């Protein structure tokens, strides 16, 4: 553990950001899984509503800095392709 005041604060803020990012990414994986399962089940209505929610969550994750903008765009595009096949 650091014994310099600014480094103690940096360690603390890094841990807080890590926990926040972990929670955000976990929620993203959950919504992406819901879209995938709805597509596999052939349920177009559920897939579309889950896609809207997942897209919103991805955009929020980008604004919070949890993921890169291109990663969110790629995930949204892939999900939209799968939903549009229904």
Automatic annotation (TrEMBL):
Residues 1-21 are annotated as: Disordered. One of its GO terms (cellular component) is cytosol. The keyword Cytoplasm does not apply. GO terms for molecular function: small ribosomal subunit rRNA binding; structural constituent of ribosome. Keywords: Ribonucleoprotein, Ribosomal protein, RNA-binding, rRNA-binding. The keyword RNA-binding applies. Pfam families: Ribosomal_S20p. One of its GO terms (biological process) is translation. It comes from the Bacteria. Belongs to the bacterial ribosomal protein bS20 family. Binds directly to 16S ribosomal RNA. This is Small ribosomal subunit protein bS20.
């Amino acid at each position: 553990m650091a014994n310099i005041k600014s480094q103690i604060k940096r360690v603390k803020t890094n841990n807080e950001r890590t926990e926040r990012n972990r929670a955000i990414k976990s929620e993203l994986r959950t919504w992406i899984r819901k879209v995938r399962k709805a597509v596999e089940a052939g349920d177009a209505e559920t897939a579309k509503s889950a896609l809207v929610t997942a897209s919103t969550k991805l955009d929020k994750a980008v604004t919070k800095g949890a993921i890169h903008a291109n990663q969110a765009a790629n995930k949204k595009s892939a999900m939209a392709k799968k939903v549009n096949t229904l």
